[in-house]
Amino acid sequence: MCSLEKRGNLFLLTLTGNDGDDQHRLGPEVIASLLSTLSRVAAEATRGSVLITTAQGRYYSTGFDLLWARKAESSVAAADRLRSMVSSLKPVAAALMSLPMPTIAALNGHAAAAGFLLAICHDYVLMRSDVGVLYMPEVDLGLPLPDYFAALFRAKIRSPVVMREVLMSGVKVKAAEGVKMGIVDSAHDSAESVVEASVRLADKLSRRKWVGDVYADIRKSLYPDACAILDLPLNPIFVSKI
Prior knowledge:
- This is Enoyl-CoA delta isomerase 2, mitochondrial.
- Keywords: Isomerase, Lyase.
- This protein is of the alpha/beta class.
- The protein has helices spanning about 30-45, 65-70, 75-100, 115-120, 140, 145-155, 160-170, 175-180, 190-205, 210-220, 225-230, and strands at about 1-5, 10-15, 50-55, 60, 105, 110, 125-130, 135, 185-190.
- A six-stranded mixed sheet has the order 1-2-3-5-7-9, with helices on both faces. It has a three-stranded parallel sheet with strand order 4-6-8.
- It is globular, with a radius of gyration of 17 Å.
């Protein structure tokens, strides 16, 4: 599940686990909680709002709850559960990509598979360097990439070499390597320091007092192919208020 704290213009969304799950696996309840919380953030947005997402413990998120899928009574039912999670996470990705404010992922630890996807849906990614990797294990698990996963990774990772290493080789990327690859904006030496750095960045962005809807439309215009797959309409025509 997740919690939401509001500090002035800053929204701090924290993945808190579900039934003792410290890996923050993205099962139906967690996905529903994320979508509901992001809807609340969008509804309460004002000029200068900023979102930070993080998680408790050593994991940001290890992706879909495959353990829940495997508990189904048959392989067909397990596949149906996985397809359901893939489908239900798509609106969460769309919500992050259309949120009317800057967004920052403060990665307190491992972000793998769908957890990695959540991270790159943010405008900024900050990561701790002492613990945690970015990892797309689908090639190792024998799972194809959902269409919106592929579109978002194409949009956010422009180097074909980095794309090959991350998606087709399944490399585990630490914070310093992520900075060199252009996936991570900055590396920090603890969970506390990555959140503190994210708050400093959020304060800096908040002072710009950007109009949220315009900010969201500019974001969407930068990633038109991904937004088309996410069913997000583009609105490239603005009326100046100056």
